[in-house]
Amino acid sequence: AAPIALVAGMSRSSRNGIVVKNGTTIEKLATAKSFSFDKTGTITEGALYIDQLSYTSSYTEKTFLQLVASAEQESGHVIARSIVREAKEKGVALLPVKDLEEVTGQGVVCFIEGNEVKVGKSTFVGKKDVHRLTNEVAVFVAVNGVMIGHVTMKDQVRQEAKETMQMLKAGGVESIHLLTGDKQEVADSIADQVGIDVVHADCLPQDKIAYIQEIPAPLRPTVMVGDGVNDAPALSVADIGIAMGAHGSTAASESADIVILKDDLAKVAQARDIAKRTMVVAK
Ligand code: ADP
Ligand code: MG
């Protein structure tokens, strides 16, 4: 297409809070055949709320929350940020941490007062998952290898998610995929609620990359939409990477071809719409 048309498309996108870094992205987005969405923070809201704290008798609500929030204080994950926010609201003082390590898409491990503290998904902490509702995420906590409790957090599906999937399909998108580090039954239920066709659960960041790379030719160009540090590599390997920039990580925004500045998933469908209309005008 004529560069001038692409520039017009970029400026139209930008007026709508959609930053398109390169004109050729508009051409690809207009003909995209498939979309993959990350779950936590992308299909669901970025702000989580603690639902329940379960801990062994050597802790109180306050000391348990203090331990978890302290371990999470440096993490940019939406789960971590929500835990730290709630701890601060409750007046819990954070403890200093040593040798902190974040394992992307899994959790954090560090030392607090000489003890090894591990916080993250069940497989990372080495414990069995708990039964939970599909609008909840669970975070497990172990001290020196012994499970001491878990936190469940409410994670609502975005109200605009279903409509966004409908708009994409109405605009000619053939298949929509859900990629998540969370477990299968939670992912299946969310996909069902919002109208996503294909689910790939229990993904590590490298599984998300492999999945995107293996999307077959008839489903290309393919788009990946995500918000987290763990989504950044998948955003780079997709034909088009879209970052939810309002609450998402810097790494995601830097790896993406398009950054959505408003915390609104419907902007993804709007971006596609603008791209299509730009190409019609350009012809
Ligand atoms: P999704 O792919 O659905 O966005 P992630 O891959 O970001 O989810 O995370 C998958 C799971 O890993 C989360 O549900 C959570 O249990 C765990 N997890 C990842 N990072 C953290 C962290 N910093 N603190 C606690 N749990 C984490
Ligand atoms: Mg996410």
UniProtKB/TrEMBL annotation:
Signal peptide: none
Compartment list: Cell membrane
Family: Belongs to the cation transport ATPase (P-type) (TC 3.A.3) family. Type IB subfamily.
Name of the protein: Cd(2+)-exporting ATPase
Organism: Enterococcus italicus (strain DSM 15952 / CCUG 50447 / LMG 22039 / TP 1.5)
Lineage start: Bacteria, Bacillati, Bacillota, Bacilli, Lactobacillales
